[in-house]
Automatic annotation (TrEMBL):
<keyword id="KW-0472">Membrane</keyword>
<dbReference type="GO" id="GO:0006814">
    <property type="term" value="P:sodium ion transport"/>
</dbReference>
<keyword id="KW-1003">Cell membrane</keyword>
<feature type="transmembrane region" description="Helical">
    <location>
        <begin position="142"/>
        <end position="167"/>
    </location>
</feature>
<feature type="transmembrane region" description="Helical">
    <location>
        <begin position="452"/>
        <end position="473"/>
    </location>
</feature>
<protein>
    <submittedName>
        <fullName>Sodium-coupled monocarboxylate transporter 2</fullName>
    </submittedName>
</protein>
<feature type="transmembrane region" description="Helical">
    <location>
        <begin position="68"/>
        <end position="87"/>
    </location>
</feature>
<feature type="transmembrane region" description="Helical">
    <location>
        <begin position="522"/>
        <end position="544"/>
    </location>
</feature>
<keyword id="KW-0739">Sodium transport</keyword>
<dbReference type="InterPro" id="IPR001734">
    <property type="entry name" value="Na/solute_symporter"/>
</dbReference>
<dbReference type="Pfam" id="PF00474">
    <property type="entry name" value="SSF"/>
</dbReference>
<keyword id="KW-0406">Ion transport</keyword>
<dbReference type="InterPro" id="IPR051163">
    <property type="entry name" value="Sodium:Solute_Symporter_SSF"/>
</dbReference>
<comment type="similarity">
    <text>Belongs to the sodium:solute symporter (SSF) (TC 2.A.21) family.</text>
</comment>
<dbReference type="GO" id="GO:0005886">
    <property type="term" value="C:plasma membrane"/>
</dbReference>
<feature type="transmembrane region" description="Helical">
    <location>
        <begin position="423"/>
        <end position="445"/>
    </location>
</feature>
<keyword id="KW-0813">Transport</keyword>
Length: 585
């Protein structure tokens, strides 16, 4: 989560005066058309294609969703501001190692299809946190839902404020007015259309994002001189060198990027309610597996073009770095600068680019508040009221509405306290390794029980929070070398040194030769958080005794483990909300 937040905050600043975008009437029409289509989808599913007034219909489309739209929706969820704005900048500044975030899909998709998702279908689970209560106990479920809800509430204003700020900077309109208008449209189609509107708007918004990403990459390569020329220049500039360094302080290596990405994407797609909700809305496990395979291919293709854009940016400016030359303030602003340089002269393209950024935000925001409404209702409201399907839908829609108001008001805080929010989100983000670990613990370790699981999660969160807090601002990483020998002479400032490519380091800058855990690369955080959870929980599962009344239901284990487990068949504990209903009855 911390990577997502920090990249998103950087993306907000990315469409800044450096980019010198100019909006004209065509751009406004394109942007308005994108918002109008999103609203129209909400009207259609909210008033003309309404299903039954049930929570299953509202949250999962009656489990009749189609494979291809769900797959596209999942891809759109990953094409956030981090993908569009900061990944090309990452490739420009630090080289190709980030691409192993994409390569890891060859492991992630089989892991989802054969280890994780079958557990949800075999137990008819629609809320992934239900699994934690069925497998462990209610305390583990409450802890994880609290982490999910608190993290989402911190991030919701960020999702929407950042593109609103970008639009404000290129048009001059008040950022909070834009925030209110776009938030209103997002809340409208999410509140009335439910998951069907969320998925189909994702399909439209994904189309906009794909067109923008591919167009910028291809046109940039054409301007450089073709694909072969792009790779030749990038190779000479060290951007295609894979880092096999085993130093734990090195910023990005094949080892830390691939391992952290595998855990992160498996957890985000397969163990995060905003994605799980869409996956289990498909009618069968077969459909879900097919959707995830399509998602994997789509993710790789789109992320390839996004990474390729970063290589193109370097090839375009390899002998005149806009950062050293003073035209761009930092690497995170390279994308809008490059977009303006490449397609800024074409009428309507700036509008497509800003629509792309907004589409990324809306797809993430709508899925988040829709799933958040379901989690809050079923975990915190339903146990305390007399449940009816109609009442549940009304409450969840009201919750979505208030989330929209909160996003607008939260934008006022985001505008003033960005640096503080970065710290908060970094602390919240390190819990992601523990969250993924506790699910995998339940699915893969038959001996694991609730007391050990909760102690493992708390230990991981405590350790990682301390590391992040104490290392904040400590580690700085140099970008790969660049040149300015072909820049116009008047543009060079007094501090710029015109020199050929020279060696550079991507390890953390710190004093002393001894290793300190505070110098650990941030790319290891998810892995370490995951490992701490298992290193604490697995031994404690054998040391501490579980409750005498608890017996393992083998269906709660992953299918890959079940054949090797000797068990006594027993029903899992009844969920808390079901107990409440039976008591009232």
């Amino acid at each position: 989560m911390s990577a997502l937040l920090n990249a998103s905050i950087q993306a907000a600043a990315a469409v800044a005066p450096d980019s010198q975008f100019v909006f004209n009437s065509t751009d406004y029409v394109i942007f308005s058309l994108m918002l109008s289509i999103s609203a129209a989808i909400g009207v259609y599913f909210g008033f003309f294609a309404k299903g039954e007034d049930t929570t299953e219909e509202y949250l999962m489309g009656g489990k009749r969703m189609k494979t291809l739209p769900i797959a596209i929706s999942l891809v759109a969820s990953q094409l956030s501001a981090i993908s569009i704005m900061t990944i090309p900048g990452e490739m420009y500044g630090y080289g190709i190692n980030w691409f192993f975030n994409v390569v890891c899909m060859v492991v992630v998709v089989p892991l989802l299809n054969y280890v994780i998702i079958p557990v949800f279908y075999n137990n008819n689970i629609t809320n992934c946190y239900e699994y934690l209560e069925m497998r462990f106990d209610r305390k583990v479920r409450v802890l994880q839902t609290f982490l999910f809800i608190s993290t989402m509430f911190f991030m919701l204003p960020i999702f929407l404020f950042l593109p609103s700020l970008a639009f404000s900077q290129v048009t001059g309109f008040n950022v909070h007015i834009i925030n209110a208008i776009v938030s209103g449209i997002c809340v409208f189609y999410t509140m009335f259309g439910g998951i069907k509107a969320v998925v189909w708007t994702d399909v439209v918004q994904a189309g906009i994002m794909v067109v923008s990403v591919v167009l910028v990459g291809v046109m940039g390569a054409y301007r450089v001189g073709g694909f072969s020329e792009v790779f030749r220049i990038a190779g000479e500039g060290g951007r295609l060198d894979v880092n096999f360094n085993l130093d734990l302080t090195t910023r990005s290596t094949i080892w830390n990027v691939f391992s952290s990405a595998t855990i992160m994407w498996a957890g985000y797609v397969g163990l995060n309610q905003s994605c799980v909700q869409r996956i289990v809305s498909l009618p069968s496990l077969k459909h879900a597996r097919r959707a995830l395979v399509i998602f994997g291919f789509g993710f790789v293709i789109i992320m390839f073009f996004n990474c390729f854009t970063g290589i193109v940016i370097f090839s375009r400016f390899f002998d005149c770095d806009p950062i050293k030359n003073g035209q761009v303030s930092k690497v995170d602003k390279m994308v809008p600068y490059f977009v303006q340089d490449t397609v800024g002269h074409l009428r309507g393209l700036p509008g497509v680019f800003i629509s792309c950024v907004f589409s990324a935000a809306l797809s993430t925001l709508s899925a988040s508040i829709n799933s958040l409404g379901g989690v809050v209702y079923f975990d915190y409201i339903k146990p305390h009221i007399r449940h009816t399907e109609h009442k549940a839908n009304v409450i969840m829609k009201l919750f979505v509405f208030f989330c929209g108001i909160y996003c607008v008001l939260g934008g006022i805080i985001v505008e003033k306290f960005n640096s503080i929010l970065q710290v908060l989100y970094s602390i919240g983000g390190v819990s992601f390794g523990a969250t993924c670990a506790v699910f995998m613990l339940g699915m893969l370790v038959p001996r694991a029980h609730g007391r050990a699981a909760i102690l493992g999660v708390l230990s991981s969160i405590a350790c990682m929070s301390i590391i992040v807090i104490l290392s904040w601002g400590r580690n700085h990483y140099d970008t790969l070398p660049t040149r300015v020998d072909n820049c116009p002479a008047p543009a060079l400032n007094a501090t710029t040194t015109v020199s050929p490519l020279s060696p550079s380091t991507t390890a953390a800058a710190h004093t002393g030769d001894e290793f300190s855990i505070l110098d650990l690369s941030f790319n290891w955080y998810v892995v370490v958080g995951f490992a701490i959870t298992w290193l604490v929980a697995v031994p404690l599962s054998y040391i501490l005794k579980q409750r005498a009344d608890v017996k393992l239901d083998p269906k709660l284990l992953s299918p890959v483990v079940q054949p090797f487990v000797r068990y006594e068949l027993a029903q899992a504990d009844e969920l808390h909300e079901l107990k409440s209903e039976n008591t009232k009855a």
